[in-house]
Amino acid sequence: MSSSSLSASDIQPQALSSLFNSLNEAWIRATSSGSVVRPSSTLVLLPDGRPAPSEAGDGAGEVGRLGVNWRVRCVPSLGEKARAKAQAQAQAQAQAEGASSVDSTTVGKDVFAPPYDANLFVWSDESHVVLLNKYALVPRHFLLVPKEFASQNLPPTPGMLALTYQILRQDAQSHTILSSDFASTSTSTSTSTLTPAESEREKDGELFAFYNCGNLSGASQRRSHVQFLRSGLEGQEELGERGEGRVPIENLLSLCVEEHQGKDDTVFALPLPYQHFVALLSPPSSSQSGALQSYLMRKLFGLLEAMQQARFAALDQQTSSSQGTLSPSQSGATQNGPPSYNLLMSTRAMHLIPRSKEVFELKVEEDGKEHQAELSINSMAYAGHLLAKSRAELLALQSLPGGALQVLSRTGIAGVKDVTTALAEEGTLATKE
């Protein structure tokens, strides 16, 4: 395991090409050795079928033209993982109450701290390391982790943000991950062979990144980390004019482009029943990361500012409203401490979605009995990829009134029209409803 001497300010495309070559090799090594767990799963589409706004802006239009095909992946083994997590939490509680039988070395362990598992290690520079996700729902799910501890309750650092975008851009430009060498090698090991659907997704997929920030965001680890997944077209889906569509939620980016009007610092709110802020990206082409860091942090600060202004406006509405106290999902008022939100990034946009709670309670019927299941919602869901832990949960989601939008609205925060109007007048936020 060797570490590059490159710093975050001078990473060149050649170094990132080596990252993807190493990723291919690490994936084959990890799947062959069993270091990566690949649970069986089923993927279904859950179209929302909402009407698209007409040019007249009256809300009428062709049904489904702007709809998002939400994906629901059913992974039964997630139920076992959830039960193990609940047991660990119970152990932690017992320890806090003075129980001596709990093994303190396993409770709250920093799983991304060195020494790294050699079979999961991919690549490193002076400040970050790339590791395979041990529990891979899709092939080559990998993580960018700082070597020095940083909290997942804080935003990603400028260096991490810039390196994230460099990885996305390098993949989009080179598609090194799809090299013929990998294709020939992967078929030589049965545990590494992709299914036909996975192979198609790899061939025409797009890498996107996400960051779960805060206690209500669906984050599962304490140490800061960015996750990378490949998302592809499913069924009869087609790409948009600008290549959007592989990441489901980016089917709505055309609305932002129409309203952009050349203003690079514009922050947009997607036409959804919850707050979903977007900044379009067209960063400098310079290989120096300093300019890229400044550019991306300016975009992130704009998104964070929009989130805060929406929260303040909602609280102001609460004090002046005769309707009484607003719920957290309406006002954005959550527990004390840093705000929780999900951050998504593709080569074309950065997204920020404020959160009001982590889980959605779903009524599920199994063996003739009804019970409440908890769906943990993270950035993947807001990108368009939801997870179900059983077939019963999948069926319940498919029959849920409002579908995915109902789930994401309950765990997100309702939009604030006054903020939309105020920010639009200042030229910092544009929307199309």
Distance between the termini: 52 Å
Strand order of the largest sheet: 3-4-5-7-6-10-11-9-8-15
Q: Please write the string of helix (H) and strand (E) elements.
A: HEEHEEEHHHEEHEEHHEEEEHEHHHE
The general outline is globular
Domain ATP adenylyltransferase C-terminal: 272-413
Biased composition (Low complexity): 318-332
InterPro entries: Ap4A_phos1/2, Ap4A_phos1/2-like, Ap4A_phos1/2_N, ATP_adenylylTrfase_C, HIT-like_sf
GO molecular function, one term: ATP:ADP adenylyltransferase activity
Describe this entry's structure for a reader.
The protein has 433 residues and is α+β, with helices and mostly antiparallel strands. It has a domain at 239-357 and 412-433. It is built from 12 helices and 15 strands. A 10-stranded mixed β-sheet has the order 3-4-5-7-6-10-11-9-8-15, sandwiched between helices. Strand 10 (341-345) and strand 11 (349-354) form a beta hairpin. Helix 1 (13-33) crosses helix 3. The protein is globular. The termini are far apart. Pfam families: Ap4A_phos_N, ATP_transf. InterPro entries: Ap4A_phos1/2 (IPR009163), Ap4A_phos1/2-like (IPR043171), Ap4A_phos1/2_N (IPR045759), ATP_adenylylTrfase_C (IPR019200), HIT-like_sf (IPR036265). Residues 66-153 form the Ap4A phosphorylase 1/2 N-terminal domain.
Give the gist of this structure.
35% of the residues lie in helices and 19% in strands. It is an alpha+beta fold and 433 residues long.
